[in-house]
Structure formats: C-alpha cells, structure tokens
Amino acid sequence: MALVAVALATMIAMAALSIDIGTLYEAKAEAQRAADGAALTAARVISISGLTGDPANGNADGTWAATCGGATPYASQAAIKVAQAQQNFVASAAVGTVTVTYGAGKAGGAATDCSTLGAGFGINPTVTVTVKRTNLPIFFAQVFSLFNSNYSGIGVSATATAEAYNSSNSASQAGTMIPVQPRCVKPWIIPNRDPGNLVAPNQFVSPTDGSISHAGVWPTGVIGESFNMNADCTPGTTPGCVLTTNPPGYTGGILHYVPALISATPPSALPSGCALTPGYQSAIAGCDQNTVYACGTANGAQYDLTENPVNPNAATGDTATAAACLIHSGTGGQDTLPAGVYPFEIEAGFSNPLVQQGVVNNNDVITTSNSIVTIPIYDSTAGLLPPPGTGITIVGFLQVFINNVDTATTGNVNVTVMNVSGCSNSASGNPTASGTSPVPVRLITPP
Questions:
Q1: Cβ neighbours of residue 50 under 8 Å, at least 6 residues apart?
Q2: Which residues contact 22 (CB under 8 A, 6 or more apart)?
Q3: pLDDT tens digits, residue range 12-65?
Q4: Which residues of the chain, if any, have pLDDT below 50?
Q5: Is residue 311 within a helix (H) or strand (E), and if so which, with residue range?
Q6: Residue spans per domain, the chain
Q7: What is the pTM (predicted TM-score) of this model?
Q8: CA distance from start to end of the chain
Q9: CA 112, CA 127: separation in Å to the nearest integer?
Q10: CB neighbourhood size of 72 (10 A)
Q11: Cα–Cα nearest to 166, from 423, 444, 346
Q12: pLDDT tens digits for 9-25?
C-alpha cells in the first residue's frame, strides 16, 4: 500500500507536469496563430489601402496617417480585432494584450504611428504584432496546492511580423529593381496610360524605373481614381477581335485593353451558378494561375485576338458575362467600395460567399473580395502593337476594385484603382513570390 501511495503521488505529479505544461505549450501555439493572423491582416489592410501607392512622397499627403497613424490606426484596429476574435481564444480565455508596431524592411520596427517613418516604409512596410495572455488556467497542479486558485499567474506571448511589398521605385532603396509576378491576373492588358491624368506624364508608372507617375490619393494621385474599361475590338458577332485602334488608348471616356494570350490549363476557383465557357471567360471569373505576366522582362506576355468566341466588348460578350459572374452582380448582391472613403472600406454584399456562410453579415467591412482584381500594364511607349503572338513588355500592374459591369448596353467594366505596382521595362532582380496581389503580403517572422 505504501508503494502504491508513493507511485500514485508520483503519477499525479507527472500528470500535473505533463498536462499543465502541455496546456501552456498549446496556449503558446494559439497565441502564435493569433499573432500571425493579426499581422497578416494589418499588412493586408496596408496593401489594399493604396498606402504603397505613394512610396516616394512619404506621408506628405496624409495617406499613411489615415491607414496606420494617429490614436486609433485603421490597420492596428483590424489586427487587434482579429487577434481578439473568438476563433483565436488562447487557452479558453480571451487574448489579454495586443500591441501593433510598424517599420520599414525586414528588420521591422517599434513605431506605433507609421506616419513618423521614412520613405522606405512606402515600398516595404512591415507590421509587428505581439499577443500576450497572463494568468493562464491550471488543472492538476491544484492537487498539490501550488496555486491558490484555478489560475497560475503564468503567461505566454507570441510575436509575428508581416510585410507588404511594392516594387515601384524599389531600386531607389535596394539598388536593384525587384519585380513582382502575381498569379490569378485577369487577361485584360491595358496600355500604360492613366485616364485621370492626361497631362505629361500621362502614365501609370515610369517605364524606365517603375516609379508611380502620379503617386498619392485622387484627385491629385492615382489611388482612388475610377474609370471605364472595354476591349479594343471592333463590334460584331464574328469570333475573335479586330483592333479598333492601334495602339490601344483612352478614347471616348474608356481605357481600352487587349485580351491576353492565356494558358491552356483550366483556371481554378470558378464561381458556381454561372455558365462559363472554357478559356477566356474562365480566366476572368476564376483564378488563372498558369499564365505568366513577366513584369520588367522584354516580351514577357502576349496578347491574342482569336480566342474569344464572342467579342469581349459587347454587353453580352465574354468580358461582361464573366466579370458579372465574378463579382456576383447578377443578383445585385455584389460587394461595394464606398466612394470618397479612405482608407478603403469594402462592404460585403449579400451574395458574398462569407455572407452566405454566415461568417460576416451583409454590409460588414471586409478585407478580401472577388471584386478586387489585378490587371497588367504593358509598355505602350513603343507605339504600335506588334502582330498577335509577338511578345509585349509588362511594366506594372493595377490592383482595382470592380464597381459594376454594364451587361445591358456597353459592356463597360467600371473600376477604382486601389494600388499600383511598377517594375520598369528592364527589371534586373528575380521576381518575388507574390501570390495574387501586385502588392504581396507575407509573414517574415523567423521560425
């Protein structure tokens, strides 16, 4: 009996050690997941805010302060909300303290107000989130009266750093132009001509160094500018496209694009409930991960005038049909981007999959949407487009929000510019792995 008593005490002690310490390790992992999610959220807010659309001017126009400066920064509040959300509870108790700081480059920083940082922040902004939880619960250790309550007084903390990267004018900071190469790009190759700034230089980006020609927020800058897009195709019912103007440009209040030559591999993430033809329509409505738009590389992409079964500029054509499916506009339940609100606040429509699944409510502010798309910009300074199938040079990308699609009369796609990323026509660095955004977001916390 004495041996059993000693063994039992030893077993309980080992249980206390293993279970309670195991609980602390699990709490640490949960805190790390909360910090990771919060850091990525804040970086995502920075990415879609257009803050990096003013990388050279710093905070001269106040755009940085609106996103991550002041007493209650928008990006910081989004990070704190994610960290304290129900799904990120730490050891069955809400996260205690969440701190958010900003810096430039991979080293991160300790500034709670990003508007105090230098111009490098606009190219490579980083955000660091630290999650702390104190007085975690204990279980078996209570048997030995090691603690006077159900709580240990012991805490855990976790830190994560995420960055958003804009290649525009990156050579001024890194010495080398490091381009991006996003996936799921929509097959609308637009000329490097900014319809909202028709005075010289009436370009989105400089083709020589990739810098943004009209940095900042509309009406002085390109961020928040809205315009219509349509294909540079002669109307008709003949399959394919015949260029109306060469080179494409901004005429009649419309910025004209040419269809891209897309990969034969079917795209992923096609919306349900839409009748889409393979190829061009599917590349618009889905995620075309296989077509490469090599930014800053001579002949890094091609355009095609033969793959479209219906002229893409028609109201019932390929572009209008597929784009309307993408943004769920057939039911009128698409997401919206309120005009004149900065930083951008995307409101979920009732057809948004997150609303349909009960994750968010209709009109809730969200940070991701099918209406946010990336489109390539080609170097139109060369003059006439070469024959189809010949390479053209991509010099940057626009990240735009599709406001609406005219499926009744014109087939126009109305968009608002959320961010710009330039890479010049002769980038020398290897492209970053950028996901679907031209201003990629990633965790850089060391393991």
A1: 63, 217, 223, 224, 342, 343, 344, 417, 418, 419
A2: none
A3: 666 666 666 667 777 788 888 889 999 999 999 888 888 888 766 667 767 788
A4: 86-87, 146-148
A5: none
A6: 2-164, 166-327+370-439
A7: 0.85
A8: 49
A9: 10
A10: 8
A11: 423
A12: 777 666 666 666 667 77
